[in-house]
Amino acid sequence: MIAQNIFKIQSEIGPAVQLVVVSKYRNIEDIKQAYAAGQRHFAENRVQALLERKAALPNDIHRHLIGHLQSNKVKHIAAFIHCIQSVDSKELLSEIDKQASKHKRVIDCLLQLFIAQEETKFGMDAEECKAILKAKIAGAWPHVNVIGLMGMASLTDNVEQVRAEFSSLKSLYDELKDLHGLRVLSMGMSSDYAIAVAAGSNLIRVGSKVFE
Ligand SMILES: *Cc1c(COP(=O)(O)O)cnc(C)c1O
């Protein structure tokens, strides 16, 4: 039962951690059940899915993007997106800034870091993250609000490795948060959110465990 799954996860993580339900690949009826249970933060990994779900679901939903975003697609979501969690380059940030300004908005974004040992295509390293925050604090991208960091751990049964990957992102977050006003550390999905929360995550992105 979707509602029970949500309540169970919420009771595990406590009130200080935000649950964002990942609704990718789910049908509208399932998402409506989560909505009826009071869930208001949902994430998709594709722009097309975001647009379809926006048309089919209530307007008080906060919509997050968690997948790689191509610059030429930013314009389709700039009017309504609540948070873009998957910012992986300066160029993308510039395009988000440009499109947000057209709608007189300031869009909340997270910088996606690679922390996993496996090769991943998208994300940035700590140096690039720091360079972006430095430029931001100097006045770049006024229509973007960088509110935190996001990362995905390796897909492995090795709990120690996952814990170490999350801890490394937490350390970077702690190093940067006061100076740059960061308040969101997005780490943890169905298989590893307990480890992520123990390591200091305050936002988890959970799909399968909600809809199973
Ligand atoms: C799909 C996805 C999730 C959710 O994965 P589950 O294992 O279904 O909980 C979380 N974060 C990102 C970036 C994803 O692509």
Secondary structure layout plus pairing:
Layout: H1 2-13, E1 18-22, H2 28-36, E2 41-44, H3 47-56, E3 62-65, H4 74-77, E4 83-87, H5 90-102, E5 107-114, H6 126-137, E6 144-152, H7 159-180, E7 184-187, H8 193-198, E8 203-206, H9 208-211
Parallel strand pairs: 1-2, 1-8, 2-3, 3-4, 4-5, 5-6, 6-7
The site of pyridoxal-5'-phosphate has 14 residues, from strand 8 and helix 9.
Provide structural commentary.
- This protein has 212 residues and is of the alpha/beta class.
- The chain has a single domain (2-211), classed as Alanine racemase (TIM Barrel, Alpha-Beta Barrel), CATH 3.20.20.10.
- It contains nine helices and eight strands.
- The chain has helices at residues 2-13, 28-36, 47-56, 74-77, 90-102, 126-137, 159-180, 193-198, 208-211, and strands at 18-22, 41-44, 62-65, 83-87, 107-114, 144-152, 184-187, 203-206.
- An eight-stranded parallel sheet has the order 7-6-5-4-3-2-1-8.
- The mean pLDDT is 97.
- The structure holds pyridoxal-5'-phosphate.
- Pyridoxal-5'-phosphate binds at residues 22, 24, 45, 66-67, 152, 189-191, 205-209.
Describe this structure in a few short sentences.
The chain has helices spanning 2-13, 28-36, 47-56, 74-77, 90-102, 126-137, 159-180, 193-198, 208-211; strands spanning 18-22, 41-44, 62-65, 83-87, 107-114, 144-152, 184-187, 203-206. The chain has 212 residues and is an alpha/beta fold. The site of pyridoxal-5'-phosphate has 14 residues, from strand 8 and helix 9.
